[in-house]
Design goal:
- This protein has 292 residues and is an alpha+beta fold.
- The protein has two domains: 121 residues, 2-Layer Sandwich (Ribosomal Protein S5, domain 2); 165 residues, lpxc deacetylase, domain 2 (lpxc deacetylase, domain 1), CATH 3.30.1700.10.
- Helix content is 21%, strand content 34%.
- It has a six-stranded mixed sheet with strand order 12-13-19-14-15-21, with helices on one face.
- Helix 1 packs across helix 2, helix 1 crosses helix 5 and helix 5 runs parallel beside helix 6.
- It is globular.
- The relative contact order is 0.21.
- The C terminus is likely disordered.
């Protein structure tokens, strides 16, 4: 069972929000053991714990809220923290949405690694899956199975000719997250942009912070970072959402066409079935990447 961890020193960044289009400044600060991840709206004098109970919306992003104060699009920063094993941190923000940066978690990951990671003098428990838990949510599915490690398998399917079906299975550790998942950017379809903006979403979206797909292909001049960057970003989002559980999951998570809403429904089902899991020690194993 590893020790809890926080940042060695504070780091900061700023930028526009993907959905609100508003500029915000963010500061990540070290936090004492057993703190968890705490978002602080400095312009609202409000603190919101990163937890399932704090989720107020899951439309096109994961939003946390408390007493009228909200913070949108928290999944990318939560993914970076969870992917690097940061348990305790204060996240100060002076606006309503975490900046999207380049649409991935790579800049956030670099900031955290640049700060350094400090071990704390208390053990960090994991949730070990002991019996299968399965959720079917319309066309989406997500399940957790017993597994001697931490693994995610994700499948997506879109009718767009460039996407079709993509599937990736990955054992989770800090190196795999940093190299294989953190650089994967969010994506959207050109045909949906006007609808999203008319309904209050994607006001800050552009080819600088998202992969945009037109009828003929990717509109970004830089192209893709991975041939399957789309499914990798879905895994990035899933890692961020799953971190709201409060414990790393020791098991095999298998997701099929899942999104933020289904991810949160799954977490609620998981915690409501304590006969299917136990708090346990971390099991160390060599990570591998496989495609199927």
């Amino acid at each position: 069972m590893r020790l809890q961890r926080t940042l060695k020193q504070e780091v900061s960044f700023e930028g526009i929000g993907l959905h609100t289009g508003r500029h915000s400044k963010v500061r990540l600060k070290p936090a004492p053991r057993d703190t968890g991840v705490i978002f602080i709206r400095t312009d609202k004098d409000a603190s919101i714990k990163a937890a399932i109970s704090s989720v107020s919306d899951t439309a096109f992003a994961t939003t946390l809220g408390l007493n009228g104060a909200r913070i949108r699009t928290v999944e990318h920063i939560l993914s970076a923290l969870a992917g690097l094993g940061i348990d305790n941190v204060f996240i100060e923000i002076n606006g309503p949405e975490i900046p999207i940066l380049d649409g991935s978690s790579i800049e956030l990951t670099s900031l955290i690694l640049g700060s350094g990671i400090a071990k704390q003098s208390k053990k960090r428990p994991y949730m070990r899956i002991t019996r299968p838990v399965v959720l079917t949510d319309g066309h989406a599915e997500i399940a957790a199975f017993p597994y001697n490690g931490r693994r995610i398998t994700y499948r997506i399917y879109f009718t767009h000719h460039l996407l079709g079906e993509q599937k990736l299975s990955l054992d989770m550790n800090e190196e795999n997250f940093t190299v294989q998942i953190a650089p994967a950017r969010t994506f959207g379809f050109l045909k949906d942009v006007e609808y999203l903006k008319a309904n209050g979403f994607a006001k800050g979206g552009s080819i600088d912070n998202a992969i945009i797909l037109g009828e003929t292909g990717v509109l970004n001049s830089t192209g893709l970072r991975f041939k399957d960057e789309f499914v990798r970003h879905k895994i990035l989002d899933l890692i961020g959402d799953l971190s709201l559980l409060g414990y790393p999951i020791y098991g095999h998570i298998i997701a099929n066409k899942s999104g933020h809403t289904t991810n949160l429904k799954f977490l609620k089902k998981l915690i409501s079935h304590p006969e299917c899991w136990e708090l346990a020690s971390e099991f160390s194993r060599q990570a591998t990447v496989s495609y199927s």
